[in-house]
Amino acid sequence: MKYITWLSKHLSLSIPLFLLLGLAAGLTLPTENLKVLIAPLTLLMVYPMMVGVKPKQLLVGGDHAVQVWAIVINFIFIPMVAFFLGRVFFAQQPELALGLLLAALLPTSGMTISWTGFAKGNLPAAIKLTLIGLFLGSLLTPFYVKALLGSDIPVQLALVFQQILLFIAIPLIAGQITRTLLVRKHGVETFQKKYAPKFPPFSSLGVLGIVFVAMALKGPDLLESPSLVLHLLLPLLLLYGINYVVSTVIARKRLNRGDGIALVYGTVMRNLSIALALSMTAFGEAGAQAALLIALAYIIQVQSAAWYVKLSDKLFPMEPEK
């Protein structure tokens, strides 16, 4: 357990490590059968996060402004930026444009809450952002992909919805049943102190497993064309850079410190694990190519989130105590 916890607490190191391990496996071992691990690894990633979800948090008021701004950024602005960057950088490679769009269409993850806490932001607002982002992202993603890339990528809406049901709805129900049973047996306080902290590290283990599989399957292709790495990283850096700048400017001008930090992490943190799982299960060969770009996005997202915590006190100074 201590090794799993270490990997979870040091994602900025463990994700690149598992990318390298996956690449080594792809170069030295037969990897075709690894695809069967995608679904169970995704369930391993999503289910532990759902145990900690409190649907009642959706009823907590007082943060309407941050929620509205997050919806505008997550479901109007960023998808359009991703679509535009896909057209500019991947005009002849729609499968890579798909990866960029999937990364943009599924906002928020458990890391939204974690990083907001690290930066001393508004945690209840971050929890609500996560729940709303997960729900709207799941609902809208198939239609966005169909509308924006339907002429380039074969999109089977029924299959995409089936995958979303498998990877989100079922783990959510299972997570809530687990939470209810543990609280009923041990009480809320014991659950929060003893059991709740044990679940998130397993979620990170699922993330690392998916990263390993994606790189094992597609990593060798990168070595055949090293310039492809730069070709993939540049639009990703632009996507995240634009996201950070826009979210930070709005947060500083329109919101208080706590809500502002929640807004930044509620818009920049994408649910790359679900995006990766969808790409590798619902879009055929195009999705396998898209998965490579999404796997690289993990590195940018985790590293940038860590650096932003260090800058948050300068960007959002603490109000002096009266």
Strand content: under 5%
CATH class descriptor name? Mainly Alpha
CATH topology: Na+/H+ antiporter like fold
Q: Mind summarizing the main beta sheet? A: none
Rg from Cα: 19 Å
Task: Itemize the secondary structure elements and their pairings.
Layout: H1 2-9, H2 11-28, H3 38-51, H4 64-89, H5 94-105, H6 110-118, H7 123-149, H8 157-186, H9 188-195, H10 200-224, H11 227-254, H12 257-268, H13 272-282, H14 284-315
What do you see in this structure?
The protein has one domain (31-315): Na+/H+ antiporter like fold (Up-down Bundle). Helices cover 81% and strands 0% of the residues. The chain has helices at residues 2-9, 11-28, 38-51, 64-89, 94-105, 110-118, 123-149, 157-186, 188-195, 200-224, 227-254, 257-268, 272-282, 284-315.
Characteristic key phrases:
322 residues; mainly alpha; Na+/H+ antiporter like fold; single chain; 14 helices; globular
Short synopsis of the structure:
By secondary structure, the protein is mainly α. The protein is 81% helix and 0% strand. It is built from 14 helices and no strands.
